[in-house]
Amino acid sequence: MNDAFLSQWTYDLPPDRIATHPVSPRDASRLLQLPLAGGEGIDRQFHQLPQLLQPGDLLVLNDTRVMPARLRARRASGGAVELLVLEPGPGPVRALARPARRLAAGERLDLSGGGSVEVLGREGEKVLLSFDRLPAEVMAEQGEMPLPPYLHREAEEGDRTRYQTVYAGPLGAAAAPTAGLHFTPSLLEALAAREVSIARVTLHVGIATFRPLREEDLERGRLHHERYEVSEETAGAIAATRAGGGRVIAVGTTTARTLEATTPPGASSPVPGQGSTDIFIRPPYDFRGLDGLITNFHLPGSSLLMMVAGLIGRERLLHTYQQAIARGYRFYSYGDAMLIL
Predict the structure, then answer these.
(1) Single residue among 118, 142, 166 that ends a domain in this structure
(2) Angle at Cα 304 formed by Cα 263 and Cα 82, nearest 5°?
(3) Quick check: helix, strand or coil at residue 109?
(4) List of residues 6+ apart from 199 with CB closer than 8 A
């Protein structure tokens, strides 16, 4: 039954539609404007976003900062190990390791850029590591950006800047909130001149965002946990926007996930605070924390695709994707975007 369910969420994407590198400047990407009420998508450029919004609207950004989390190390035997650190520390941190099976508690690994880590033990598919200094410092000095596997390339120096939003704040993400990659400082200034307000939430995107949906996810109706924070200021800005007749537009599915997880049923603004969410948004779903969404084009069969369909329906979304493919839009993390409003 689950295979049949997932088969409804596939589409054919020519390999040349996958964006392996970003455009320059960031806001030169394309933007497919899709009216929430219905109708066909309209071709735009991302830098036109201020003209597509109204004074009094509020954009909510996810300001998490991506960790340069990929580290290279060697065992005492000389064998190579690749680590993907999942949290910034301080203290012991969890990581994915390749190969992982051979690593034992008490083993020390020498990092390629200097220093070492000790394997403290295993937590399921993850290893628990102790660094000889702050993990965040080690990653900043010798880590590589954790590019999505579907890019089929190693991280380059330029990815340290481009696989990061210009407004990134707290360190903690293992993947970028990619809808935010299109924004530039000048675009943010143009939005302010248009009297479009900006608010921020933090959701530290986990590496599981790239993981295919599992049968247990579908059965439980829940996904992987991700840590979030919503400030009093942001909650107040959303409440004020709604009270004033403005629209709340989430920049990215990670922002949408945060708003929906923190906005109680029957409410229209979030409860401030910190926590962790495993919410799984898919049709049928009534959004309560947002009025519109800016999002990139997502992988077939992914939870992110289902979340967007919760806003406009599965058939309309897949039809829109086919249109975007025919019109030459670029897909995935470094690709183009949609404005659903």
Answers:
(1) 142
(2) 115
(3) strand
(4) 58, 59, 60, 61, 233, 234, 237, 238
Dihedral over Cα of 100, 104, 106, 108: its sign: negative
Q: How many domains is the chain partitioned into structurally?
A: 2
Residue 16 is classified by DSSP as G
Q: Number of C-alpha atoms within 13 angstroms, CB side, residue 96?
A: 10
Strand arrangement of the beta sheet that strand 248-251 belongs to: 42-45, 30-34, 337-340, 292-296, 248-251, 58-62, 197-203, 222-230, 273-279
The DSSP-derived string for 202-270 is: EE---GGGGSPP-HHHHHHTEEEEEEEEE-HHHHHHHHHHHHTT--EEEESHHHHHHHHHHS-TT-SSP
Same domain, yes or no, for 85 and 61? Answer: no
Low-confidence ranges of the chain (pLDDT < 50): 1
Matching residue, tokens 């409003």: 341
pLDDT 10s digits, 87-116? 998 899 999 998 877 888 999 999 999 999
- Residue 274 within a domain: yes
* Residue 3 neighbours by CB under 8 Å, 6+ apart: none
- pLDDT of amino acid 221: 75
Only one residue has tokens 């910034």, namely: 88
CB-based contact 62:200 (threshold 8 Å): yes
3-class state of residue 309 by DSSP: helix
State pLDDT tens for residues 213-249.
766 777 677 778 899 999 999 999 999 999 999 999 9
Quote the CA–CA distance of 309 and 338 in Å, as a whole number.
13
What amino acid occupies position 320? Answer: T
Residue 292 is predicted with a pLDDT of: 98
Show the tokens assigned to 44. Answer: 């735009």
CATH code of the domain containing 335: 3.40.1780.10
